[in-house]
Write a structure and sequence with these properties.
By secondary structure, this protein is mostly helical. It has 20 helices and eleven strands. The chain is 47% helix and 9% strand.
């Protein structure tokens, strides 16, 4: 009986505790996790940590961007003056987001940039730029002309970074301000230096392209390579450790775990091809080649930002060079993967515009090595930030308004200096063309719009 009971217990099926079914994961997710743990890649999904220094920089730029649009409207007039009543119409046509009678009130917020006065004959309000604003524009123009030779070198390096040694003219024209190129760079830079550039029309696409005539090996040196050499000479670091490394400065509050730090250290030692090197002859199907191409994309964007005047450029404008420079498709996710090298700011245009900064070039929201063109552009931001209270006691503005008789409407002035005012002739001419001048003005300005590349917003697959 004892034996029978013992054997019966052995023959009973073993009851297993109920287990939760394992979630069905796609095969590519499993393999990606396996490759991530065994490779030297940095984890791709990273939360974006805000850096207030860069965000504050973009908040100021948001104000200056609107001011620049109004400046362009005023300077497009022959007399460099514009009736205040026309600002509302032009602002609505340009889609600046102003309601009725708000555009004119917006001008009063910046008395150091715009001056509103009453015309002595027409008895309506006109707007013109202050002397400080005109001096800032003149200073920026002089700085732009002084660094034209450096702009030629930057354009040569930019075209050399492309796969085929050519770039589309329209893409360069959209980003001409970032690279310090004048508005007429097609004639003053490209056609002026035929020994460096060649301009031709593509028969299949009917687009103009800039082509490099001859690659200069002296220019095929990245800025990060110069930084590595300087660190090696000044700090005496191991040459093998910094041979392929980048300068990494994580934003405040960025959590760096043990495994993430190890992954970054391994990634820094991965070799890669230079952005100026032709990789068309390499076999890019292996895992090692893909790692090199990924790091080469980081070096390409790093070099692209180093060629800009302010070490920043919008993400939408980088997307224009994506096909020509072998950049990844998901640019925003790719840049967030390397937050220690780049910073992506969504401030400045209600989240529609993404601005990419080179972190190592800035400290507390200011450029470490400023140039004359950068300083000239920052002066406009200083004028925008000056409060209206200071405008009442500012000596330069008081002296300007005292010497300038346009603001002081006096009967004797109207009799003696009536010939200095030619605005009424311009208004009569505009009335004859009724809307023709407005439409031309708007179309010319849209061509030079700061946010022209926002048409890329609809193409989310590229960003």
């Amino acid at each position: 009986m004892v034996f029978f009971s013992y054997t019966s217990t052995l023959l009973k099926p073993i009851r297993q505790s109920p287990r939760r079914p394992l979630p069905l994961t796609p095969l590519h997710d499993f393999t990606s996790k396996m490759l991530m743990s065994q490779s030297t890649s940095i984890p791709k999904k990273q939360e974006r940590v805000r850096d207030h220094g860069f965000d504050n920089y973009m908040e100021i730029e948001k104000k200056t961007r609107k001011v620049l649009k109004f400046q362009s409207l005023i300077l497009s007039q022959p007399s460099h003056t514009l009736p205040v009543s026309r600002f509302d119409t032009l602002a609505r046509r340009l889609g600046l987001g102003f309601k009725e009678n708000q555009a004119a009130a917006y001008l009063l917020k910046f008395p150091h940039v715009f001056e509103i006065y009453e015309h002595p004959v027409l008895r309506i309000l006109f707007c013109r730029l202050t002397r400080k604003a005109l001096l800032q524009i003149q200073q920026e123009k002089e700085a732009l002309d002084a660094q034209l030779s450096h702009a030629v070198t930057r354009l040569r390096k930019l075209v050399m970074m492309s796969n085929t040694g050519r770039l589309r003219l329209e893409h360069v024209r959209i980003a001409r301000k970032e690279f310090g190129l004048p508005d007429d760079f097609e004639y003053s830079v490209i056609l002026k230096y035929p020994e460096f550039f060649r301009l031709f029309d593509a028969t299949e696409t009917r687009n103009k392209y800039i082509e490099i005539v001859e690659r200069d090996p002296k220019l095929a040196v990245c800025s990060i390579e110069k930084d590595r050499e300087r660190e090696y000479r000044e700090k005496g670091l191991d040459a093998e450790d910094i041979r392929f490394s980048f300068i990494v400065n994580f934003p405040p509050g960025f959590k760096i775990g043990k495994y993430y730090r190890i992954a970054v250290w391994k990634w820094q030692r991965v070799p890669y091809w230079s952005p100026y090197e032709d990789v068309s002859g390499y076999d890019l199907r292996s895992l090692e080649a893909q790692k090199r191409m990924e790091k080469r994309a980081v070096a390409t964007i790093h070099e692209l930002l180093s060629l800009t005047v302010e070490k920043k450029i919008s993400l939408e404008r980088i997307a224009h060079f994506r096909m020509a420079m072998n950049l990844p498709k998901k640019l925003k996710d790719f840049l967030l993967q390397h937050q220690g090298i780049f910073y992506v700011s969504t401030r400045g245009n209600y989240g529609k515009l993404h601005t990419v900064f080179l972190r190592e070039a800035y400290r507390k929201g200011e450029l470490i090595e400023p140039n004359d063109l950068y300083l000239a552009r920052r002066k406009l931001g200083e004028l925008v930030l000056l409060s209206s209270r200071k405008a009442k006691v500012d000596k330069d503005l008081v002296r300007y308004r005292r010497d300038d008789d346009i603001v002081c409407v006096r009967p004797d002035y109207m009799k003696n200096d009536f010939k200095n005012f030619r605005v009424e002739d311009e208004i009569e001419h505009n009335e004859e063309g009724k809307g023709g001048s407005d439409s031309d003005l708007v179309s010319d300005y849209i061509d030079e719009n700061e946010d022209m590349d926002e048409t890329m917003d609809g193409k989310e697959d590229t960003v």
